[in-house]
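A.,

Following up on our hallway conversation. Structure tokens first:
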């Protein structure tokens, strides 16, 4: 599912110069219970092609908790908040190492950026986050953004930012992105959560406007 601001192509032929792409856990694990390197490699290759064409790409990624559960298999049955924070702490480095290796093989430098709702709600924090991301893009790095689940209990519980769909929208607004792409295992935007509401209907994309 994608939303865009400026569809016109620029002078270098790019339709969207600045792109924010959200990668969900089910996508990164290919529906399994651990990171799927083949799937991640395919996604990184697509980002690398955009990067090579001159586009600026920011990734908002899930997967830290899944990566942590992969490393600490003996805690698979636990779902409480403290253990999820532990999983995020263990998994974040593993997730970033996977990204770093895949992007480095294509000659691209990545930069980890951990955010919470508090960072974006405060004016100084908002400007600092914006300036850092824009500086990274200027230096041709690919920022990889995630919620700081290790300290942000409210995000894990889904009370505030709630998920990386919302975070990616906030980041897209933060950097004035031309395109926000939500890469997920859901077929598109529904009138309600199709997993909870059987009457939910897919909102089909209309014609060109």
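Then the amino acids I'd put at each of the 209 positions:
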């Amino acid at each position: 599912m994608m939303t865009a601001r400026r569809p016109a192509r620029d002078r270098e032929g790019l339709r969207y110069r600045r792109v924010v792409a959200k990668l969900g856990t089910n996508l990164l694990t290919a529906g399994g219970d651990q990171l799927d390197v083949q799937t991640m490699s395919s996604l990184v290759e697509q980002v690398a092609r955009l990067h090579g064409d001159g586009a600026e790409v920011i990734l908002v990624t899930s997967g830290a908790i899944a990566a942590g559960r992969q490393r600490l298999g003996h805690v698979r049955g636990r779902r409480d908040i403290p253990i999820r924070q532990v999983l995020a702490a263990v998994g974040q480095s593993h997730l970033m190492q996977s990204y770093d290796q895949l992007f480095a093989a294509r000659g691209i430098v990545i930069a980890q950026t951990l955010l919470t709702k508090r960072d974006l709600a405060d004016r100084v924090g908002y400007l600092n986050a914006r300036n850092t991301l824009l500086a990274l893009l200027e230096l041709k790095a690919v920022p990889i953004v995630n919620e700081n689940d290790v300290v942000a209990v409210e995000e894990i519980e889904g009370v505030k930012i709630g998920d990386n769909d919302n975070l990616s929208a906030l980041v897209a607004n933060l950097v004035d992105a031309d395109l926000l792409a939500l890469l997920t295992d859901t077929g598109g935007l529904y009138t309600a959560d199709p997993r909870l509401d059987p009457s939910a209907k897919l909102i089909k994309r209309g014609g060109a406007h």
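Residues 81-104 form the longest helix (24 residues). Curious whether your intuition agrees with the design.

B.
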